Amino acid sequence: MKEIRYPQLLITVVFGLIIWLIPPPAGVTPEAWHLLAIFLATILGIIMKAASMGTMSMLAITLVAVSGVLAPGNPGKSVTLALSSFGDKVIWLIGISFFIARGFIKTGLGKRIAYVFIRIFGRSPLGLAYGLGLADLVLAPAVPSNTARGGGIIYPIMKSMAMNFGSVPEDPSTHRRLGSYLTLNSYNMNLITSSLFLTGTASNPMCQKFAKNVGIDITWMSWFTAALVPAAISILAVPFILYKIYPPQLKSTGDAPAMAAEKLKEMGPVHRDEWLMLLAFVILLFLWISGDVFGIDATTTALIGLVFLLLSQVLTWEDVKSEKGAWDTIVWFSALVMMASFLNSLGFIPWFSDVIKQEVGGMQWTIAFPIIVLVYFYSHYIFASATAHVAAMYAAFLAVGISVGVPGTLLALVLGFCGGIFGTLTHYGHGPAPVFFGSTYVELKDWWKCGFLLSIVFLLIWMGIGAGWWKILGIW
């Protein structure tokens, strides 16, 4: 694409100005409303490809700093706040995941692991999709960061698989051959496993804490039991549905198992750099699983892994500098996280929650319940972080539902499950999203289109079949 598409950029600017000039609703400060205008215009510009995401993000950061919406009358503090998300540890975890993925590719270990998976599951693209999903499922209970799990473990294997079947990120004409399908499938399977386990993603324990504050006890087992049936159906359904609505051009890989076995033979024994990469992988996996015991969080673990790879010379600093996707992602994701976070702290998100409470007040709980869930789910379009969404809205929506008679445990669990699956909506809506989207295999419009269709599938499964399962369990 052209770096700047001026007609689309003009539309973006006009859209932002219109929102900016509309008087803010009662209860919303001018600063919050103006930040919303910049945020929505940025998202529109990205969707319309008015400029690259990096350019749009730098434009947004500059507008936030110049307009002073975060610190009126204090230009120095305003620019500091506009740049504050560049220090967010989740963003750096995402960036470092790209570097670790480079180690898998450079050493050939990713290729070797890919061939093992292909040998087992590789008779069809659908089989590959299920194989990657099952790998994520096995890791999910013990890897509480779905960004670490999806970005640091599954992503490099998935990318290696796609590249070995001729789907190359640098060649857009090859994306739909296999890479696009595997990218969307791996990301969405990651979201399902995030919803299945209380330890599947970082925002889930936050839901548990908020529920406890209103007298609702959720244990690891009660969460898992309630999520088991809808999650299992989702795991079975999503690869097949994506295969129908966003099919890979490659329809059969019937000779892949034999080919994989032959390729493994050609690669010969595991060499030094592969062993070191494997050791780094084991260290990363061990610390991501047991980090709480040692007081080491996921980002620190990723830094340890990266430094190990640099000191062992598996990666060089030139490799790190040349990983353009990582640096690009750090920039644009930082901008979105910054704006979404300050929409909450400036009061727009709490105001939005109050508006919903007023709308559903007095309704029967059977009517209010799906409305609350739908609004909570689709409001994720304005969030660049599941944790920020949960922190801003979970407690408020839970209180609203309980006040109109929705069974507390039912609502607490369903809103908690949404914390994983609502990430399907956008390319920035969950920690692993920028990693998978950064592969460049999936066009932005395709990501949003498939995400919306899958959101309907998820809601039908979790709110439909799930409701029957929860009735059997006595949750409502």
From TrEMBL:
InterPro entries: CitT-rel, SLC13A/DASS
Cellular compartment(s): Membrane
Membrane topology: Multi-pass membrane protein
Domain of life: Bacteria
Molecular-function GO term, any one: transmembrane transporter activity
Primary location recorded for the protein, binned into one broad class: membrane
Gene Ontology CC entries for this record: membrane
Transmembrane parts of this sequence: none
Keyword annotations: Membrane, Transmembrane, Transmembrane helix
Family, as annotated: Belongs to the SLC13A/DASS transporter (TC 2.A.47) family. DIT1 subfamily.
Name this protein carries in UniProt: Anion permease
Source organism per UniProt: Chitinophaga solisilvae
